[in-house]
């Protein structure tokens, strides 16, 4: 059986994806046939794949022997048969069944690619800043790029030892006016800091979204989420960039900034009396299907415009249900100077706020 976009869009979250991302998903999705009585997957097992019911019916059996029957014509069939890790139900084919199967990790990648493409751009500036409409003056006084960089909230949380290693691993690169350093839609390989010169951030339509200068950085979101670039950065003048490779970025910048909290630690924080807000950055349809009690849904693509509304007096805890999207969200919030933790919620039944 051949799967096309029209069939795939019958299921969530594929109905929210653009044509390009649907094509990527179609290349990785497979069709599997099961006979009546077959087991599609078992409760308690960590699933590497996501199952959708295309034809037939299944019974989902929980640990307490409660049973949910799903037919391919029922509204529930639009969603994955199991969205939890490990699986909380065993799926039995009560008729001959045709299922769509896709790797969970790849589906996670597709979702973060899609939502990252809706963000304004991976840059280190305030999204509400107005762009300077005056012509860029190339003969500007030199600024200490290291001082500007280290003054950013993102770098204030880096361990001192990492700072030294960071500057040792930066690779200088001379660039010319008009040169496109990164291009929208391409894979991320480096994190960039402007040592000298100026640049502009262009969206997919070629419109200037922001201006960058000495000490500004860009390219981190594509590395965190392993996504395609969501903007083009073009030099407005000759200059010099400092480039940090993907592995060094993960080791020295990303991992130290992502502070995890266990469920036990989360409960202790609740009892401390501190103001806490639990956030889920998945799409609303995903959030509706499975959520932590008390969590607020702010999809990743809507997070950046809301950063200025978030209080620095609140501890934000991001559910890890969003996979890579959750990691991108944490990085964005750290850049904004917010106090944020990533909750290891894979084994959570319910979290009460």
What attributes characterize this protein structure?
alpha+beta, Jelly Rolls, Oxidized Rhodanese, domain 1, 28% helix, disordered C terminus
Characterize the structure shown.
The protein is of the alpha+beta class. It folds into 3 domains: 104 residues, Jelly Rolls (Sandwich), CATH 2.60.120.10; 109 residues, Jelly Rolls (Sandwich); 85 residues, Rhodanese-like domain (Oxidized Rhodanese, domain 1). Helices cover 28% and strands 27% of the residues. Strand 11 and strand 12 form a beta hairpin. The protein is globular and about 70 Å long. It starts with a helix and ends in a 10-residue tail after the last strand. 36% of the residues are buried. The C terminus is likely disordered. This is CRP-like cAMP-binding protein. Pfam families: cNMP_binding, Rhodanese.
